[in-house]
Amino acid sequence: METKNRLEQIKGDIPKMAKSEAGKFVKRFEDVVEKATTTKVKEIRFVGVEFDYKKVKIGEAQVNKALAEGFQPQRDIITESGLVLVMIKLDEE
Description:
The protein has two domains: about 1-35; about 40-90, no CATH class. The model has no long low-confidence stretch (mean pLDDT about 80). The protein starts with a helix and ends with a strand. About 50% of the residues lie in helices and about 30% in strands. The chain has a three-stranded antiparallel sheet with strand order 1-3-2, with helices on one face. With about 90 residues, it is an alpha+beta fold.
């Protein structure tokens, strides 16, 4: 009985969306999903950034260069001396 009351409360908190707005939202969502599933990784790059006072600028420059070349950060991996950024360039089809 307690669960049913809580579900009714949650339902009441969810804002209602007009059908025309819902249709537009669904279409945008489908477009995003389609683009995400049809996009392929063209190139992958691992960029190391050491947290050493003298070496951090080198890693920073490599990350900025990769960004300028169209790479996007995908994931970062923390290491003992800094981190490694996994960066990808997507194939524009």
